[in-house]
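User: Before I run my own analysis I want an independent prediction to cross-check against. Here's the chain; please return only the C-alpha coordinates and, at the end, one sentence I can use as a sanity check.
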Amino acid sequence: MKKLFAVILIFSAFVSVSAQERAYGNGEYFKFRVHYGFVTAGYATLNVKNASIKGKDVYHVRGFGETVGISKWFFKVEDDYQSYIDREKDIPYRFIRKIDEGGYTKDIEIDFNHTTKKATVNDKKNNETSVLSFPKDTQDMISAFYYLRNQLNTENIKAGDVIEMNMFFDKENYKFRLKFLGKEILDTNFGRVRTLIFRPYVQSGRVFKEKESLTVWISDDKNKIPLLVKADLAVGSLKATLTEFKGLQHSFKIIAD
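Assistant: C-alpha coordinates:
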Protein backbone atom coordinates (compact mmCIF):
# COMPACT_ATOMS: atom_id res chain seq x y z
CA MET A 1 0.00 0.00 0.00
CA LYS A 2 2.91 2.35 0.54
CA LYS A 3 3.10 3.32 -3.13
CA LEU A 4 -0.68 3.34 -3.66
CA PHE A 5 -0.94 6.52 -5.70
CA ALA A 6 2.56 6.49 -7.13
CA VAL A 7 1.76 3.21 -8.93
CA ILE A 8 -1.12 4.85 -10.77
CA LEU A 9 0.99 7.86 -11.73
CA ILE A 10 3.82 5.72 -13.06
CA PHE A 11 1.35 3.93 -15.30
CA SER A 12 -0.32 7.14 -16.37
CA ALA A 13 2.97 8.79 -17.17
CA PHE A 14 3.32 6.84 -20.38
CA VAL A 15 -0.02 7.31 -22.11
CA SER A 16 0.32 8.51 -25.71
CA VAL A 17 -1.76 10.05 -28.53
CA SER A 18 -1.46 11.81 -31.88
CA ALA A 19 -0.07 15.34 -31.72
CA GLN A 20 -2.69 16.84 -34.08
CA GLU A 21 -5.34 17.38 -31.38
CA ARG A 22 -5.15 18.05 -27.68
CA ALA A 23 -6.09 14.98 -25.69
CA TYR A 24 -7.14 16.81 -22.54
CA GLY A 25 -8.28 20.17 -21.24
CA ASN A 26 -9.88 22.14 -18.44
CA GLY A 27 -12.32 20.09 -16.37
CA GLU A 28 -11.01 16.61 -17.16
CA TYR A 29 -11.41 14.27 -14.19
CA PHE A 30 -10.52 10.63 -13.53
CA LYS A 31 -11.30 8.52 -10.46
CA PHE A 32 -9.72 5.12 -9.82
CA ARG A 33 -10.64 2.36 -7.38
CA VAL A 34 -7.48 0.75 -5.99
CA HIS A 35 -8.07 -2.82 -4.86
CA TYR A 36 -6.68 -6.21 -3.92
CA GLY A 37 -9.21 -8.53 -5.55
CA PHE A 38 -12.64 -7.56 -4.23
CA VAL A 39 -11.22 -5.56 -1.31
CA THR A 40 -11.11 -1.80 -1.90
CA ALA A 41 -7.87 -0.39 -0.53
CA GLY A 42 -8.32 3.23 -1.61
CA TYR A 43 -9.17 5.73 -4.30
CA ALA A 44 -7.12 8.05 -6.50
CA THR A 45 -8.13 11.01 -8.67
CA LEU A 46 -6.62 13.18 -11.40
CA ASN A 47 -8.18 16.60 -11.99
CA VAL A 48 -7.30 19.33 -14.56
CA LYS A 49 -8.12 23.04 -14.13
CA ASN A 50 -7.10 26.25 -15.91
CA ALA A 51 -4.73 28.44 -13.88
CA SER A 52 -1.80 30.86 -14.22
CA ILE A 53 1.66 30.94 -12.68
CA LYS A 54 4.17 33.76 -13.00
CA GLY A 55 2.07 35.30 -15.77
CA LYS A 56 1.89 32.09 -17.83
CA ASP A 57 -1.32 30.25 -18.71
CA VAL A 58 -1.11 26.73 -17.34
CA TYR A 59 -3.10 23.64 -16.55
CA HIS A 60 -3.08 22.94 -12.83
CA VAL A 61 -3.24 19.17 -12.49
CA ARG A 62 -3.80 17.63 -9.08
CA GLY A 63 -3.48 13.94 -8.33
CA PHE A 64 -4.68 12.76 -4.95
CA GLY A 65 -4.77 9.25 -3.50
CA GLU A 66 -5.74 7.85 -0.11
CA THR A 67 -6.53 4.59 1.62
CA VAL A 68 -10.06 4.00 2.91
CA GLY A 69 -11.87 1.70 5.32
CA ILE A 70 -9.94 -1.03 7.07
CA SER A 71 -6.88 -0.40 4.87
CA LYS A 72 -6.60 3.08 6.36
CA TRP A 73 -6.45 1.60 9.83
CA PHE A 74 -3.65 -0.79 8.87
CA PHE A 75 -1.68 1.59 6.68
CA LYS A 76 -2.74 5.20 6.19
CA VAL A 77 -1.82 6.77 2.83
CA GLU A 78 -2.50 10.34 1.74
CA ASP A 79 -0.58 11.35 -1.40
CA ASP A 80 -0.98 14.77 -3.01
CA TYR A 81 0.81 15.43 -6.32
CA GLN A 82 0.39 18.66 -8.30
CA SER A 83 1.85 20.01 -11.52
CA TYR A 84 1.55 23.37 -13.31
CA ILE A 85 1.91 22.69 -17.05
CA ASP A 86 2.29 25.19 -19.89
CA ARG A 87 -0.87 24.94 -22.02
CA GLU A 88 0.99 25.17 -25.33
CA LYS A 89 4.45 23.72 -24.70
CA ASP A 90 3.41 20.85 -22.40
CA ILE A 91 6.32 21.51 -20.01
CA PRO A 92 6.09 21.76 -16.20
CA TYR A 93 6.82 24.99 -14.32
CA ARG A 94 6.10 23.69 -10.83
CA PHE A 95 5.71 20.28 -9.21
CA ILE A 96 4.43 19.59 -5.69
CA ARG A 97 4.71 16.32 -3.82
CA LYS A 98 3.16 16.15 -0.34
CA ILE A 99 2.76 12.62 0.98
CA ASP A 100 2.10 10.66 4.14
CA GLU A 101 2.58 6.93 3.68
CA GLY A 102 2.31 5.15 7.01
CA GLY A 103 4.20 7.95 8.74
CA TYR A 104 6.76 8.34 5.94
CA THR A 105 6.31 11.94 4.88
CA LYS A 106 7.63 14.32 2.23
CA ASP A 107 6.75 17.92 1.38
CA ILE A 108 8.63 19.03 -1.73
CA GLU A 109 8.05 21.86 -4.20
CA ILE A 110 10.09 22.08 -7.42
CA ASP A 111 10.28 25.10 -9.75
CA PHE A 112 11.57 24.39 -13.26
CA ASN A 113 13.46 26.99 -15.30
CA HIS A 114 13.54 25.58 -18.84
CA THR A 115 15.78 28.39 -20.10
CA THR A 116 18.62 27.65 -17.68
CA LYS A 117 17.61 23.99 -17.28
CA LYS A 118 17.79 24.38 -13.51
CA ALA A 119 15.33 23.00 -10.97
CA THR A 120 14.96 24.72 -7.60
CA VAL A 121 13.97 22.05 -5.09
CA ASN A 122 12.39 23.30 -1.86
CA ASP A 123 12.32 20.51 0.72
CA LYS A 124 9.85 22.05 3.18
CA LYS A 125 10.00 19.17 5.65
CA ASN A 126 13.75 19.49 6.16
CA ASN A 127 13.89 23.24 5.45
CA GLU A 128 16.42 22.72 2.65
CA THR A 129 16.72 24.29 -0.80
CA SER A 130 18.91 23.05 -3.65
CA VAL A 131 19.38 23.95 -7.31
CA LEU A 132 19.99 21.08 -9.70
CA SER A 133 20.40 20.69 -13.47
CA PHE A 134 18.05 18.71 -15.69
CA PRO A 135 18.24 17.67 -19.39
CA LYS A 136 16.14 19.06 -22.22
CA ASP A 137 12.48 18.03 -22.43
CA THR A 138 12.38 16.88 -18.83
CA GLN A 139 8.99 16.24 -17.26
CA ASP A 140 7.78 15.68 -13.73
CA MET A 141 5.76 12.68 -12.62
CA ILE A 142 2.38 14.28 -13.39
CA SER A 143 3.24 16.36 -16.47
CA ALA A 144 4.70 13.31 -18.23
CA PHE A 145 1.24 11.80 -18.54
CA TYR A 146 -0.21 14.87 -20.22
CA TYR A 147 2.87 15.61 -22.33
CA LEU A 148 2.82 12.18 -23.94
CA ARG A 149 -0.93 12.24 -24.49
CA ASN A 150 -0.43 15.27 -26.72
CA GLN A 151 2.99 14.70 -28.27
CA LEU A 152 3.46 11.00 -29.03
CA ASN A 153 1.88 9.37 -32.07
CA THR A 154 0.80 5.74 -31.64
CA GLU A 155 -0.73 5.20 -35.09
CA ASN A 156 2.26 3.20 -36.33
CA ILE A 157 3.44 1.77 -33.02
CA LYS A 158 4.34 -1.94 -33.05
CA ALA A 159 4.49 -4.55 -30.31
CA GLY A 160 7.95 -4.49 -28.76
CA ASP A 161 8.59 -0.79 -29.50
CA VAL A 162 10.20 1.05 -26.58
CA ILE A 163 9.59 4.72 -25.71
CA GLU A 164 12.04 6.76 -23.60
CA MET A 165 11.70 10.09 -21.80
CA ASN A 166 13.53 12.24 -19.24
CA MET A 167 11.96 12.78 -15.84
CA PHE A 168 13.00 14.78 -12.77
CA PHE A 169 11.68 13.44 -9.47
CA ASP A 170 12.50 14.81 -5.98
CA LYS A 171 16.21 15.60 -6.50
CA GLU A 172 17.21 13.25 -9.29
CA ASN A 173 17.02 12.82 -13.07
CA TYR A 174 15.59 9.56 -14.37
CA LYS A 175 15.34 7.88 -17.75
CA PHE A 176 11.98 6.12 -17.99
CA ARG A 177 11.42 3.45 -20.61
CA LEU A 178 8.09 2.03 -21.75
CA LYS A 179 7.39 -1.03 -23.91
CA PHE A 180 4.29 -1.37 -26.09
CA LEU A 181 2.86 -4.89 -25.71
CA GLY A 182 -0.03 -4.84 -28.17
CA LYS A 183 -3.79 -4.31 -28.37
CA GLU A 184 -6.73 -5.91 -26.59
CA ILE A 185 -10.50 -5.52 -26.18
CA LEU A 186 -11.07 -4.95 -22.46
CA ASP A 187 -14.26 -5.39 -20.44
CA THR A 188 -14.63 -2.24 -18.31
CA ASN A 189 -17.22 -0.64 -16.03
CA PHE A 190 -18.39 1.31 -19.08
CA GLY A 191 -18.52 -1.52 -21.61
CA ARG A 192 -16.09 -3.25 -23.97
CA VAL A 193 -13.28 -0.92 -25.07
CA ARG A 194 -10.40 -1.24 -27.54
CA THR A 195 -7.16 -0.72 -25.64
CA LEU A 196 -3.41 -0.33 -26.02
CA ILE A 197 -1.24 -2.23 -23.53
CA PHE A 198 1.99 -0.77 -22.14
CA ARG A 199 4.58 -1.96 -19.66
CA PRO A 200 6.94 0.59 -18.07
CA TYR A 201 10.29 -0.58 -16.78
CA VAL A 202 10.59 0.08 -13.06
CA GLN A 203 13.26 -0.42 -10.43
CA SER A 204 12.80 -3.73 -8.64
CA GLY A 205 13.30 -4.07 -4.92
CA ARG A 206 11.36 -2.93 -1.90
CA VAL A 207 8.04 -2.25 -3.68
CA PHE A 208 7.95 -3.96 -7.08
CA LYS A 209 8.68 -7.65 -7.57
CA GLU A 210 10.75 -7.32 -10.71
CA LYS A 211 11.80 -4.93 -13.44
CA GLU A 212 8.72 -5.56 -15.58
CA SER A 213 5.96 -5.80 -12.94
CA LEU A 214 3.63 -3.01 -14.11
CA THR A 215 1.03 -3.19 -16.89
CA VAL A 216 -1.50 -0.61 -18.07
CA TRP A 217 -4.48 -0.77 -20.43
CA ILE A 218 -5.20 2.51 -22.29
CA SER A 219 -8.27 3.36 -24.39
CA ASP A 220 -7.33 3.24 -28.08
CA ASP A 221 -8.96 6.54 -29.01
CA LYS A 222 -8.13 10.26 -28.99
CA ASN A 223 -8.52 10.52 -25.19
CA LYS A 224 -6.12 7.69 -24.26
CA ILE A 225 -7.75 7.05 -20.90
CA PRO A 226 -5.94 4.77 -18.41
CA LEU A 227 -8.65 2.15 -17.81
CA LEU A 228 -6.83 -0.53 -15.84
CA VAL A 229 -3.55 -0.63 -13.96
CA LYS A 230 -2.03 -3.85 -12.62
CA ALA A 231 1.02 -4.05 -10.40
CA ASP A 232 2.71 -7.16 -9.07
CA LEU A 233 4.03 -5.91 -5.74
CA ALA A 234 6.25 -7.51 -3.14
CA VAL A 235 3.13 -7.99 -0.99
CA GLY A 236 0.70 -9.17 -3.68
CA SER A 237 -1.11 -7.99 -6.80
CA LEU A 238 -2.66 -4.52 -6.81
CA LYS A 239 -5.09 -3.13 -9.38
CA ALA A 240 -6.42 0.34 -10.12
CA THR A 241 -9.67 0.43 -12.11
CA LEU A 242 -11.17 3.57 -13.62
CA THR A 243 -14.64 4.07 -12.10
CA GLU A 244 -15.53 7.65 -13.06
CA PHE A 245 -14.56 10.25 -15.65
CA LYS A 246 -15.80 13.58 -16.97
CA GLY A 247 -14.67 16.53 -19.06
CA LEU A 248 -13.18 14.49 -21.92
CA GLN A 249 -12.14 16.37 -25.05
CA HIS A 250 -13.31 13.61 -27.40
CA SER A 251 -16.04 10.97 -27.50
CA PHE A 252 -15.34 7.79 -25.54
CA LYS A 253 -15.70 4.80 -27.83
CA ILE A 254 -17.56 1.73 -26.58
CA ILE A 255 -17.84 -1.42 -28.71
CA ALA A 256 -21.49 -2.20 -29.34
CA ASP A 257 -22.62 -5.78 -28.65
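Sanity check: The helical segments are 4-12, 69-74, 143-151.
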